[in-house]
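Course exercise 7: structure representation. Students receive a sequence record and must write out the corresponding structure in C-alpha cell form. The form below is the worked example handed out in class, using dCTP deaminase (178 residues). Read each field label carefully; the graders check that inputs and outputs are placed in the correct fields and that the protein name is recorded exactly as given.

STUDENT ID: A-19
EXERCISE PROTEIN: dCTP deaminase
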Amino acid sequence: MILTGHEIRRRVEANDIVVTPFDAAHINPNSVDLTLDDTILRYRDPVIDPRVEPEVIEEKIPAEGLLLEPMSFCLGSSREIVGSTRYVPMVHAKSSTARAGLFVHVTADLIDIGSIGTVTFQLFATLALRVYPGMRIAQMTFWKPQGEITLYDGKYQGSTGPRKSMIHRDRHWETLTR
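STUDENT ANSWER:
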C-alpha cells in the first residue's frame, strides 16, 4: 500500500518518516519531492574494478548551475535526510527531469527500511543539461511493509552527501578467485 501525500505529511509530523528539512510545498499526491544538494562526485578512472575502492573527484555545483555533458555520469545527493523505520521508501525521477534528458537514480530505487540519510542520485545525462543546487530532481514514495521488519544496518547507513560505490567492501569478493 502506497501512502498518499497527505499521509506522508502526517507521518513526517508524527516522526514516523524522516524528511529534513521538510517543505510542505514539496508534497505531491503520493510522494514528496527531493532536491539536489550542491556537490557531485565523478569517478576518476574510466574503468571501475568492483574489487578496488574507486577514486572520485568532488565538484561543487555553483549557484549559476553546472553543465552536464551528453552521455556523462556523476553522483549527486539529496539535500534532505530521509528514511523511515516503519515504511519502505522508493526514489523515482521527476517526469520533468527525465523529459529534459536526465536519468536520475535509475537503479537501487528501493531504499531499505531503516536506512536514514541523504539519497545518492545516479545522474546520467542523455542531453546537455544544466543542474542547480536546490532543484527538484526526484521524488520519494513510501510503502507500508507486511511482515516482520529487519532494519537496514549496512555500509551506506547515515549517508551525507553523494556516496561512491562501496561494492569493494562486499564480502563475496573473498570467495571469488582472482
